[in-house]
Amino acid sequence: MLPTLEAAELPADAVEVGRIADAWGIKGWFKVLPHSAQPEALFSSKRWFIQPSGPVNAPARTGAFRLAIREAKEHSDCIVATSPDVPDRNAAEALRGARVFVPRSSFPSAGDDEYYWVDLLGLNVVNREGVALGTVRELLSGGSQTTLVLEYEQDGKPVERMVPFVSAFVDKVDLAGRLITVDWQPDY
User: Fold this and answer.
1) How far apart are the C-alpha atoms of 8 and 5, rounded to whole Å?
2) Backbone φ and ψ of 178, nearest 5°
3) Alpha-helix residue ranges (DSSP H) falling in 14-105
4) What confidence category does residue 124 fall into, taking pLDDT thresholds of 50, 70 and 90?
5) pLDDT at 54
6) Residue 168's pLDDT band (boundaries 50, 70, 90)?
7) Residues 6+ apart with CB under 8 A from 131
8) Contact, 89 vs 23, CB < 8 A?
9) How far apart are CA 15 and CA 161, in angstroms?
């Protein structure tokens, strides 16, 4: 049974940042598996929104709840957090599988030439000559570099193209204009 949480609408700028994996300890702490290797948004927001998971093959639950966060910290390969709304292990176990959302406005500011992946999704990519290369569908982390996975259409079928997201190939990222300019050719 879920702890008594305040029902809430997801903010318009809500971004899914992780899932609650399990209870941690006996005092109501819970483990969160972040979707990012750098989960600053989980630490910067003192108010999370969660959507409980349902049984497998059940329709998705549409309701969301506000969860006040007292403390969140790194622990091994996950984040552990506590809330005044989750008093004990039983309440923490009831959150297992819940999706965690944070308002985008709660994210820490990105530095110069730093971008949140969520801000790059859906941007159009063109090369220096103005040739459209596709739209950012996802990003892949490959250790030393991130790769943009672009989707475009060829002969009526969706096709993928990958472009390293490094300064040697990326000339400009215009978030307001929703455009990334790269030094890349369509036949690479």
Assistant:
1) 9
2) 55, 45
3) 40-44, 89-94
4) very high
5) 58
6) very high
7) 185, 186
8) yes
9) 25
pLDDT of residue 36: 79
Task: Quote the CA–CA distance of 42 and 45 in Å, as a whole number.
Answer: 6
Q: Are 17 and 41 in contact (CB under 8 A)?
A: yes
Q: Which strands form 132-141's sheet, in the order they lie side by side?
A: 157-164, 146-154, 132-141, 124-127, 179-182, 170-174
Distance CA(57)–CA(79), nearest Å, equals 28
Quote the CA–CA distance of 55 and 37 in Å, as a whole number. Answer: 28
Q: What is the mean pLDDT of residues 160-179?
A: 95
Cα separation, 166 vs 169, in Å, equals 6
pTM over 0.85, yes/no: no
How far apart (Å, rounded) are the C-alpha atoms in residues 71 and 107? 16
